Amino acid sequence: MAIKKTSKEEILKESIKLFKIRGYSNTSMANIAEACGLIKGSIYHHFKSKDEIGLESLKYIHNYFAEFIFSIAFRSDLSDKQKIELIVKKTDEYFLQSEGGCLLGNLALEVSILNLDFKEEIKAYFTAWENALIKIFENKYSKIEASNLAKEYVSLTQGAIMMMNLYDSSDNYLKVGEKIISLI
User: Fold this and answer.
1) pLDDT in tens, 99-154
2) Residue 115, class by beta-carbon neighbours within 10 Å (0-12 exposed, 13-18 middle, 19+ buried)?
3) DSSP, residue by residue, 49-107
4) Rounded distance, CA 147 to CA 131, Å?
5) Which residues are within 8 A (CB) of 181 and not within 5 positions of it... i.e. 6 or more apart?
6) Cys-Cys link to 146, which of 26, 61, 138, 164 (CB 3.0-4.6 A)?
7) What is the predicted pLDDT for the residue at 137?
8) Measured between alpha carbons, how far apart are the two ends of the chain, in Å?
9) Rounded distance, CA 121 to CA 173, Å?
């Protein structure tokens, strides 16, 4: 295989795809190298291990959501309804165009018990998601109700992603977003 120049970000993007479709445990460094068009040893110029790639993949997705989705909750130029609608729209765009579901949800089930670094990053992601929703819900509901609604929405979304992938249908997934919008 010819050696090509590949960035750390490109390796992360390919790794994320593989982890979502194959699972973390069923993805080898050789699989990642092949997906990137590299020889296996080339990956070690960017990452020390598969665990480092896994953790950086989780952080990459978390940062994406923080910047482009969760941040919507803190915008002052939108109404609460507009914020929720935009969060749902952007979340839908991400998961409907992403084969394999949610990497953080998948890895929460697959490896978070064994890898505490993964577990902490996954918890931070879900907490940030809940906090963004709480920020909006607090304008209409008590702090406890806002927190419960945020946890329910994140849980429903994760369950719906799993079912969407299992049944190859987005119908029920899309109903979750409609439900959360109706609460504002």
Assistant:
1) 888 999 989 888 878 889 999 999 999 999 999 999 999 999 999 999 999 999 99
2) middle
3) -HHHHHHHHHHHHHHHHHHHTGGGGG-SSS-HHHHHHHHHHHHHHHHHT-TT--HHHHH
4) 8
5) 81, 84, 85, 88
6) 138
7) 97
8) 54
9) 25
Pair of tokens at residue 48: 């020390």
28, amino acid identity: S
- Specify the length of the chain in residues: 184
pLDDT score of 4 more than 80: no
Computed over every residue of the chain, the mean pLDDT equals: 93
Q: How many CB atoms within 10 Å of residue 166?
A: 9
* Helices and strands of the chain, counted as H and E runs: 9, 0
Question: What six digits make up the tokens of 115?
Answer: 């890898």
Tell me what pLDDT residue 98 has.
Answer: 86
Report, as an integer, the average pLDDT of 17-26.
95
pLDDT mean over 179-183: 93
> What distance in Å separates the CA atoms of residue 49 and residue 155, rounded to the nearest whole number?
31
